[in-house]
């Protein structure tokens, strides 16, 4: 019997997938698991986005749950080693699957999940994009679980006497469901995918003008740390590369449209020298130009 149990355990551990994650201390209250500057694939198993834990004194709040159940479980195990506090809230910055597919883990341990009211419109699908791109083992246990507390406008949480402001962006910016989180006492903003540092922003689901507007709003807020949904720059300058990229892209595409350039010409001619060093430039820049062209053409 003992032998059987042992072999079952051994077999289980042979097949069980484990992420290798370690948190980075951003400031005295905040730890982040920074994702790789890559597109999701079977090698990184979706570990491409950021998930952060904020110590509020007597509990943690978690910003984004990552790409899978096992990823979320691993972040929590890491944080328990640092300090084993209960988790009061998980906040989803938006409805893209690399940011919320870890929700099932937090639901299982009884955490209240908060996100944009637009989550009401996220579809339950046969197979998520993440599921089709990462290994079965890494995706094990993952389900589409949506926030139970929905935010429209501003929501204020108060934890241990510290205020946490959840600001829903009221127009489609990076997505239709962006929320940024501001903790004035810690001078920290979690911007979700409104901010990509060290990576090309993905505008597939976005609106350039509204995105610029949302970033301009964030820029007016006094903060020491602005932590994006991707990338490891965590001071105020993290916002600059996304802001410059989106603005330059909008201006260049608008100019091409005015000039009567065809879509293909715009895609081939519009380059961004300052961003060429980024790992995702070769994969994402041309699709971004094409999307920007179609969207701006439509708006004209
Ligand atoms: Zn996103």
UniProtKB/TrEMBL annotation:
InterPro entries attached to this UniProt entry: Metallo-B-lactamas, NDM-1-like, RibonucZ/Hydroxyglut_hydro
Q: Indicate the secretion signal residues.
A: 1-18
Biological process annotations from GO: antibiotic catabolic process
Q: Which UniProt keywords apply?
A: Hydrolase, Signal
Does the keyword section mention DNA damage?
Answer: no
Ranges for domain Metallo-beta-lactamase come to 48-230
Task: Please give the superkingdom of this protein's source.
Answer: Bacteria
Q: Per UniProt, what is one GO molecular function of this protein?
A: hydrolase activity
Q: Which Gene3D superfamilies match?
A: Ribonuclease Z/Hydroxyacylglutathione hydrolase-like
Q: Which family does it belong to?
A: Belongs to the metallo-beta-lactamase superfamily. Class-B beta-lactamase family.
* Name of the protein in its database record: MBL fold metallo-hydrolase
Species assigned in the record: Candidatus Sulfurimonas marisnigri
């Amino acid at each position: 019997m003992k032998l059987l149990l042992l072999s079952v355990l051994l077999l289980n551990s042979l097949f069980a997938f484990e992420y290798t994650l370690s948190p980075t201390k951003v400031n005295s209250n905040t730890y982040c698991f920074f994702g790789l500057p890559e597109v999701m694939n079977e090698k990184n198993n979706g570990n491409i986005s950021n998930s952060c834990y904020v110590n509020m004194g007597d509990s943690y709040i978690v910003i984004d749950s990552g790409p899978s159940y096992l990823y979320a479980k691993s972040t929590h195990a890491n944080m328990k080693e640092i300090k084993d506090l209960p988790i009061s809230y998980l906040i989803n910055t938006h409805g893209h699957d690399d940011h919320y597919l870890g929700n099932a883990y937090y639901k299982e341990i009884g955490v209240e999940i908060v996100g944009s009211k637009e989550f009401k419109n996220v579809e339950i699908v046969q197979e998520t994009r993440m599921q089709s791109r990462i290994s079965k083992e890494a995706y094990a246990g993952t389900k589409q679980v949506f926030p139970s507390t929905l935010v429209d406008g501003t929501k204020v949480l108060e934890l241990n006497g510290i205020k946490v402001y959840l600001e829903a962006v009221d127009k489609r910016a990076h997505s239709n469901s962006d929320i940024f989180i501001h903790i004035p006492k810690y001078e920290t903003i979690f911007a979700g995918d409104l901010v990509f540092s060290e990576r090309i922003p993905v505008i597939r689901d976005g609106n350039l003008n509204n995105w610029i507007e949302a970033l301009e709003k964030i820029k007016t807020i006094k903060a020491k740390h602005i932590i994006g949904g991707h990338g490891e720059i965590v001071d105020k300058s993290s916002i600059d590369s996304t802001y410059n990229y989106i603005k330059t892209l909008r201006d260049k595409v608008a100019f091409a449209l005015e000039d009567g350039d065809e879509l293909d010409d715009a895609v081939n001619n519009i380059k961004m020298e300052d961003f060429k060093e980024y790992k995702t430039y070769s994969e994402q820049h041309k699709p971004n130009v094409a999307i920007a062209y179609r969207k701006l053409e439509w708006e004209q």
